[in-house]
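Troubleshooting log. The previous run stalled partway through. Resubmitting the same two chains, unchanged.
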Amino acid sequence: MKYGIVIFPSKQLQDLANSYRKRYDPHYALISPHITLKHVFESSNDEVKDITKKLDHIARKFKPFKLHVSKVSSFQPVNNTIYFKVETSPELEQLHRDLYSELPGGDPEYAFVPHITIGQKLSNDEHSDVYGQLRMLGIDHEEVVDRFHLLYQLDNGSWTVYETFRLGEE
Amino acid sequence: MKYGIVIFPSKQLQDLANSYRKRYDPHYALISPHITLKHVFESSNDEVKDITKKLDHIARKFKPFKLHVSKVSSFQPVNNTIYFKVETSPELEQLHRDLYSELPGGDPEYAFVPHITIGQKLSNDEHSDVYGQLRMLGIDHEEVVDRFHLLYQLDNGSWTVYETFRLGEE
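Second attempt completed without errors. Output:
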């Protein structure tokens, strides 16, 4: 099965992200707005028990931490994804590092740029149009993260939550 | 916020349900295939901590139990919903009772008929056509349930998982 690990931000931030994703993100119906901590990786049904034990262990090392969404940004020229930029923090960096070093799935393909996608797979014209507008609107938002989620992917591409891990819990 | 409590069955069963939902269920994109344990109820952000404590407590009283999906059925003439019938069991009944007696949201509106919806809001003609076909296909499937999920609803009608509760865990 294909697994991934994400943070779902608050309902308020998800609703805001969805107001853009509805028009600009073809993955709108496949998953709620999220910050990807670990990209899709393959694992067997048998392995998942071991993975959840490791995730329990990782989650306990952390405490709830602040998340700061600071602006609208874009991955251009790499691709046409537009996103809410999440300021990196020692906790996010460490969490990302632990999820890659302690779980299957190899090394990250890219440097970690924490973000919440609000538009993707846009044409160049759409991208410059939409990005121009959204960048002007801006965003500045803080909230506390106290959990992350292990998800698996269904055959239709959508994601179901397998389990939640609360930061700092016994 | 609006909350609900569900069981997500195995990926195998979700994929099968989605193969029908894609065509026959307008809620296809809003939530993964599920068994509703407690219908939508309103609760404040402050209350949710208390609710998760109660859910932790309820989950611990149970052990993982068998789920038997026995046939394709329909709620007609009440409505045109077609579903995988889940055989009721002492554990499902008790879980349903506990979630209503110990959490906010009042009494259940209907008798508890555990099921996984595969089609809804069909016209009468569609219903008899689709139901006729699916009933013939049938289903007989067993698996083990070892967790349930507390979800909340976003403004667009879709559901995000707030937290997972593993049955029988400390």
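Takeaways: Chain A has a mean pLDDT of 95. The interface with chain B takes residues 1, 8, 11, 14-15, 18, 22, 29, 32, 147, 149, 152, 154-156, 158, 160-164, 166 of chain A (CB under 8 Å).
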